[in-house]
Design goal:
Blueprint lengths: L5 E6 L1 H4 L7 H15 L4 E6 L2 H14 L4 H22 L22 E4 L8 H12 L3 E6 L4 E2 L11 E2 L1 E2 L1 H8 L13 H10 L2 E6 L3 H8 L7 E3 L1
Helix pairs in contact: 3-4, 5-7, 6-7
């Protein structure tokens, strides 16, 4: 991959802020790994999700009042912006201060790290990441989640669910369905899946807290996770 191109990493909000609280050791090591690659000349766009922070606010809003789906989506978007600002601070001096909130437009920057949050209702950060790949000419998308593989069904419900090391976009679409729901807890957003298939992207899916795995992906080595083409 050319060092002139940005590598897109979609980082789930629950990886940054898990329910049990901040994992400072992970944040330090993630920062070190990204900066190690930046010092070698690589460039990154980090797309930050809302995670459990988003879902907690959405749940409280739904239980407290009659809130529209659009407003719930905006609530989730604001959660991604807060998380993204936090990640931006971790890379202070290295990352562009301007947050990407419209993935269809390039921002002017000489920085090697750009940070993106959510865009608008009906668009998850998965979809934003796919759009950013299109906007910046990336052919590959790295998705870091709180599970290690994509499974044929939810492994938290079906403990015998089969993990899928390789699959195509058509197979992924069968798993995630076709409809986006605010706060949905799917391995990858249905709308993003459809767009990724159309663009012919390669999606590398792995557990976000496994930094050895991420390092292997960045170095083009074998990794524990799913490959979608």
């Amino acid at each position: 991959m050319s060092k002139n191109n940005y590598r897109i990493i979609s980082l789930g909000g629950s990886i940054i802020i898990p329910q049990e609280g901040f994992n400072v050791e992970f944040l330090k090591k993630f920062r070190e790994l990204i900066l190690k690659r930046v010092k070698l000349g690589e460039k990154f766009i980090l797309v930050i999700g809302g995670g459990s922070t988003c879902r907690k606010y959405q749940k409280a809003a739904k239980e407290s009042a009659d809130v529209s789906a659009v407003d719930l989506d905006w609530l989730g978007i604001y959660a991604t912006h807060f998380n993204a600002r936090f990640v931006g601070l971790l890379f202070s001096g290295w990352a562009e201060k301007e947050l990407i909130i419209n993935p269809t437009k390039k921002i002017k920057s000489k920085k090697h790290i750009l940070i993106a949050g959510g865009w608008k209702p009906g668009c998850s950060t998965d979809y934003d990441a796919v759009l950013l790949a299109k906007t910046y000419g990336a052919k590959e998308l790295i998705n870091l989640s709180n599970i290690d593989y994509i499974y044929e069904s939810d492994p938290r419900v079906n403990h015998g669910a089969k993990k899928l090391e390789t699959l195509d976009w058509r197979e992924l679409r069968k798993i995630v369905g076709d409809k986006w729901v605010p706060g949905a807890n799917l391995p990858f957003d249905p709308k993003a899946t459809k767009a990724g298939q159309k663009l012919g992207l390669t999606l590398k899916f792995a557990r976000g807290t496994d930094l050895v795995c991420l390092e292997n992906i960045l170095y083009g080595k074998l990794y524990l996770g799913s490959l979608i083409k």
